[in-house]
Amino acid sequence: MANPAGVGRPREFELGDAVRDAMDVFWDRGYEGASLPDLMAGTGLSRGSLYKAFGDKKALLLAALDLYMADGLKATADILSQPGPVKDAIRDSLLRYAHLSIGEAGRRGCLVVAMTTELAAHDADVAERTGRMFRRLQQLYAGAIVRGQARLIDATAAEDLDRVRKLLDELEEAQEIAQLLESARDAPGCRIFIGAENRMFALSGSSVIAAPYRGSQGEVVGVVGVIGPTRLNYARVVPMVDFTAKALTRLMA
């Protein structure tokens, strides 16, 4: 409960508690609307304690914004890093924002959005802080999406580390690789080498999708390909390899 204005907290007050109380005042009243008496009443600090601890109203706002953003980013990061499917984590995180946008919390709004709207256009400190938060949110969601994409391969394939080791051993056989790619040079388009049908990748159960690309005289100058598990999404990968080979051909022409 706030103390009457002028009756300050003891000297040993916690700065973090005072900043959180000030955050509520700015959240409810805005920056310009939050007077010094409002902040004194909200934090329970005297005028002297406020100025000694924070210097001025602007510094107190920046401290409140930092605390608010740290809370929000931590909540988002915790949800996005939860065990289980990444899609579920992203959904839960977005649902959290949806829940914060309805009812009493929704009527109050977002402090960052409020301060951005009120101050960012003419206050570089606020603009820098709020911009940094939005960039960090983008990074958190981008990181989650990348983790999700990394799990697209069948879980049983991803867990088969022994096959991965065998594939690496096979890739060290440079002569075998050269022979395989040479056989793809004469193909009019993509060729698919499936592990069970190719001696080189039989142990690891891997596959190769390869296509030649040509120079300005129509001669084959190289081969581009993808190596992956036999569970590859061929309908998706084959057109990508074919497109890449044709794009290289156009560049070489």
Give a nutshell description of this structure.
The protein has helices at 15-29, 36-43, 47-54, 57-80, 86-100, 103-108, 111-120, 124-150, 155-159, 161-171, 174-185, 234-252; strands spanning 191-194, 206-214, 220-229.
Structural features, described:
- With 253 residues, the protein is mostly helical.
- The protein folds into 2 domains: 15-150, Tetracycline Repressor, domain 2, CATH 1.10.357.10; 157-252, Beta-Lactamase, CATH 3.30.450.
- The chain is built from 12 helices and 3 strands.
- The protein has helices at 15-29, 36-43, 47-54, 57-80, 86-100, 103-108, 111-120, 124-150, 155-159, 161-171, 174-185, 234-252; strands spanning 191-194, 206-214, 220-229.
- The protein has a 3-stranded antiparallel sheet with strand order 1-2-3, with helices on both faces.
- Helix 1 packs across helix 2 (36-43) and helix 7 crosses helix 8 (124-150).
- It is elongated, with a radius of gyration of 30 Å.
List the helices and strands and how they pair.
Elements lengths: L14 H15 L6 H8 L3 H8 L2 H24 L5 H15 L2 H6 L2 H10 L3 H27 L4 H5 L1 H11 L2 H12 L5 E4 L11 E9 L5 E10 L4 H19 L1
Antiparallel strand pairs: 1-2, 2-3
Percent in helix: 55-70%
Q: Which strands sit side by side, in order, in the main sheet?
A: 1-2-3
CATH architecture of the largest domain: Orthogonal Bundle
Q: How do the helices and strands follow one another from N- to C-terminus?
A: HHHHHHHHHHHEEEH
How many alpha or pi helices? 12
CATH superfamily of the largest domain: Tetracycline Repressor, domain 2
Q: What is Rg? A: 30 Å
What would the principal axes of the Cα set say about the shape? elongated
What is the straight-line distance between the termini? 77 Å
| SS class | mainly alpha
For the sheet with most strands, the description reads:
3 strands, antiparallel
Quaternary state of this entry equals: single chain
Task: Return the domain count.
Answer: 2
Mean pLDDT comes to: 78
What's the CATH class label of the largest domain? Mainly Alpha
Tell me the number of strands.
Answer: 3
Which consecutive residue ranges, at least 5 long each, have pLDDT under 50? 1-12
Give me the CATH fold name of the largest domain: Tetracycline Repressor, domain 2
What percentage of amino acids are in beta strands? 5-15%
